[in-house]
Amino acid sequence: MSVESTIEINVLYFANLADESGCDEESLAIANKMSLSQLYDHLQQKHSLSMPQSELRVAINDYFVSWDEPIKAGDNVVFISPVAGG
Amino acid sequence: MSVESTIEINVLYFANLADESGCDEESLAIANKMSLSQLYDHLQQKHSLSMPQSELRVAINDYFVSWDEPIKAGDNVVFISPVAGG
Amino acid sequence: MDNHFEKSVHQGAMQIKRSVDDAYHLAIQDGFALLDVAIDEPRLRKALIDDRSGAVVSFDGRVRNHNNDSQVQRLTYYGYEALAINQGRLIIDKAKAQFGIVNAVAMHRIGALEIGDMAIWVGVSAAHRDAAFDACRWILDTIKADIPIWKQEYYPDEPSKWLSNNG
Amino acid sequence: MDNHFEKSVHQGAMQIKRSVDDAYHLAIQDGFALLDVAIDEPRLRKALIDDRSGAVVSFDGRVRNHNNDSQVQRLTYYGYEALAINQGRLIIDKAKAQFGIVNAVAMHRIGALEIGDMAIWVGVSAAHRDAAFDACRWILDTIKADIPIWKQEYYPDEPSKWLSNNG
After folding, report:
1. C3-164: what fold?
2. Which residue in chain D has the smallest CA separation from C52?
3. Which of the ends of chain A has fewer CB neighbours closer than 10 A, N or C?
4. Cα D35 to chain centroid, rounded
5. Which chain C residues are closer than 8 Å to A63 by Cβ?
6. Per the structure, how many domains does chain A have?
């Protein structure tokens, strides 16, 4: 029987993602080696998020990262829906 | 013996043209039908103005005009050397 | 969505996590900050200018009373401040490297704004006007594309909507 | 050239022929005026803006301490005010017809200026940023090309010179 290794991370939600998830922040235990795409798939199902991943950018620890950036224990992960500043 | 018809006009000088002519304004009696180019030729000789006509623009009564605009009695004529605002 | 719910999930994104003075200090030093009160343009402008600045170009974006065909009553900007500040610093650094400019400062307001309120200010000083215009426009466009700020507009006869700059 | 002589032929072109308040009134109404004291930028900016103005772009040009390789101590702008005002009105009218803007106001200072003094201010308000940027730049370029203002720069180690924008 395999012991699956998990890590604790934190996810922040803004704008329509916050509306749909009903929260602005949550702590999660996720499988080690889970990718950012897999994480978004998981959260999209969990919160019935309407936006496809293709419309999002992603940030870790307050910097934009590419979707193949690995997730580390303690990371702050944020999926960024299309912005509207200015 | 022909009586040459003359008109009275006023010429203003600015910048290097004022330096060279030593005045900012003068009244002149000129031949009727004198063109703006002929007027500048005349003033260039009179005041030893260094700038060729090709570098100048010309204004009558506070509006730019083309060099073929006729001069009328009482006109205010100004030759405009290259500008340097901004 | 009722107002209570709106507040509970977005409230953190309507306020900055530092003092107003610290926000100005950051904007003036690193080139970008968020603010949650009215932007004091003369304060930013003053910080931009020195004897090498022959040309100063500034942009300010204000809340209009119309967006396309809809009558706008008010709007709220929400920001992810920590990312906004990091990304803003990168944008300003890149503008300084890319254009021949002396200095650049930008600030974006978040929270509830009324018609006429200034939402963004971008100022660039340079020796020459072309660099100042080009850099100001580029910084503005890049802020609009990359800074994590979201906008919700409220209308008299329709539900509020989330807007997107590229949608 | 001695100072007395300089004054006698250029003095009229260093001063405006109306009151400062009349100059602001003219700039705000027709879009352009000359001024012979420091330009009060907030006064012009305030007149530019209304609820339709989503975007405001402004340019200010200041006296730099260098022009090419020469150290500038001070400079004097001379203007032919009546022509400047007529031409300025035409430029602003053309900008309003040509770009989709709400309003445009510009002012040029004449007389003796020190390093850092503002010589020109151009402000444009529009519903959208592209029109505001394009119109501001066009107005500035056209003022520089067409408004009868001349500039004499003074240097520590050389005689003063008349400058030209297209020379």
Report:
1. Aldehyde Oxidoreductase; domain 3 (3.90.1170)
2. D64
3. N
4. 8
5. 83, 86-87
6. 1
